[in-house]
């Protein structure tokens, strides 16, 4: 379901020094992404464009300050060496809650605009979602589990280096253990997406009455219901392993890595300050 909502809100989440301009033009970028899924009529565009602008403005004025507040708290606790292991899971929970807030904000717009799609437009959406799923399925089939492991390890090391500036040998051992402890969810995640796509198609083909509204609301706000028990269990295991890894990296940082991390966070805070001020000044 995230693929579908990325059409509406995905690019609204852009922050950082290299993406401030992208964030300011996120409404235009979202419209471009939307055109990849469906060809809207001129009348539909005239009705949907203001909704995208509203979502963009809501995110800028309501959500960016939350991001800033969380980063400021995190920065202070890192600088004072006050983080404990449970904080890492709380950080992950905060990230998920921010995504939930976006879903709640999007849901009324989906209720209003999705029934406007014609049969031909709905088919365009189904075909695009199927195409994306096929591409992901091909990528899974093309790589053995060992190849996927290696690719994940490379990306993980790049991400950690971007935050810490470097990785020491002991920290690499933490990364290697994290990879070994994580369950391989690729096939289970594909199955989950297939279930969501089937539900979305069934909902959009029956858009009359309260039953439609209830089913669409549940699909948007609670897509987890379509996860298998195995996938849900895997997610719990992987999230716990991620929280442990984050704390181990935090505890193992030397002074140079800590300074690099604080500068990185300071950069994001400065970018958020600029964006918040921009949207306060542009009523």
What labels describe this entry?
283 residues, 12 helices
Strand and helix map with partners:
Layout: H1 2-9, H2 20-24, H3 26-37, H4 42-79, H5 85-113, H6 119-142, H7 145-164, H8 169-181, H9 186-204, H10 209-221, H11 229-252, H12 255-281
Give a written overview of the molecule.
There is one protein chain. The chain is an all-alpha fold and 283 residues long. The chain has one domain. It contains twelve helices and no strands. It has helices spanning 2-9, 20-24, 26-37, 42-79, 85-113, 119-142, 145-164, 169-181, 186-204, 209-221, 229-252, 255-281. The two termini are 33 Å apart. The model is unreliable at 1-18 (pLDDT under 50).
What's a concise summary of this model?
With 283 residues, this protein is an all-alpha fold.
What's the total number of strands? 0
What integer value in Å does the Rg equal?
21 Å
Instruction: State the share of residues found in helices, binned by percent.
Output: over 70%
- Estimate the strand proportion: under 5%
How many distinct helices? 12
What characterizes the major β-sheet?
Answer: none
């Amino acid at each position: 379901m995230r693929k579908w909502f990325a059409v509406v809100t995905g690019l609204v989440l852009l922050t950082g020094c290299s993406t401030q301009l992208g964030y300011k033009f996120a409404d235009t970028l979202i419209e471009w992404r939307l055109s990849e899924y469906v060809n809207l009529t001129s009348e539909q565009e005239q009705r949907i464009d203001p909704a995208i602008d509203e979502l963009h403005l809501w995110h800028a004025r309501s959500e960016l300050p939350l991001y800033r507040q969380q980063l400021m708290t995190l920065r202070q606790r890192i600088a004072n060496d006050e983080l404990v292991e449970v904080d890492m899971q709380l950080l992950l929970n905060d990230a998920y809650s921010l995504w939930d807030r976006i879903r709640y904000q999007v849901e009324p717009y989906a209720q209003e605009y999705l029934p406007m799609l014609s049969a031909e437009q709905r088919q365009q959406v189904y075909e695009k979602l199927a195409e994306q799923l096929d591409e992901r399925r091909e990528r899974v089939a093309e790589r053995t589990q060992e190849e996927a492991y290696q690719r994940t390890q490379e990306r993980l090391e790049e991400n950690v280096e971007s935050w810490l500036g470097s990785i020491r040998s002991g920290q690499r051992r933490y990364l290697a253990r994290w990879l070994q402890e994580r369950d391989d969810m690729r096939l289970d995640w594909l199955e989950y997406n297939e279930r969501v796509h089937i539900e979305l198609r069934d909902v959009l083909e029956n858009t009359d009455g309260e039953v439609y509204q209830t089913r669409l609301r549940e699909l948007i706000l609670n897509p987890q219901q379509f996860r298998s028990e195995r996938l849900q269990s895997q997610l719990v295991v992987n999230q716990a392993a991620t929280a442990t890894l984050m704390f181990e990296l935090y505890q193992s940082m030397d002074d140079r890595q800590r300074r690099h991390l604080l500068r990185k966070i300071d950069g994001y805070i400065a970018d958020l300050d600029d964006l918040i001020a921009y949207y306060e000044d542009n009523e």
